[in-house]
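Let's practice the habit of predicting before peeking. Look at the sequence and jot down your guess about where helices and strands might fall. Then scroll down.
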Amino acid sequence: MLEAKHTALIQEAGRRGDPHLAQLRLCFQLLALSSAIDRDCASRLAPHGLSEGRFVVLFLLHGAGGTLSPHELAERAGVTRATISGLLDGLQRDGLLQRRNDAEDGRRLQVVLTARGKRLAADLFDQHTQWIGGLFNGLDSGEQVQLSLLLEKVWRHTDAGQETGT
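Done guessing? Here is the structure:
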């Protein structure tokens, strides 16, 4: 399950007598799992011409009833305006959305899903959530709760977790 670079680091830590071998292994297992999930996600979205970022834009638009401003999309997706602009360009080229002037304020843009974009967003969201849910089929509900609590505990020891206070 571990990547070669992580195995090499663990071996070197063992050679040096580092007392944190078990924690290193846990961290590298978590990183390997995260990488595997990211790769699987990318391979599931690629046949539809989507990256994870493009998929996020589709489901955000779909969840908002099919219309949001580029600024709202960037905020909800947690990306910059420049990033959202590139994502929108590609999705518009693929016929999944359109940019329109706001009916109330012609200076503002609204991003609107096309019928094709709506169908794809609905279908993929269902497929994606089923796939993600399936990743945890081997855990009963108590184990899922325990895993969540353990991950939250580890999160609090990261720099990001300490910054947010969660």
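How did you do? Helices lie at 4-15, 21-45, 52-63, 70-77, 81-93, 115-135, 141-155, 159-164.
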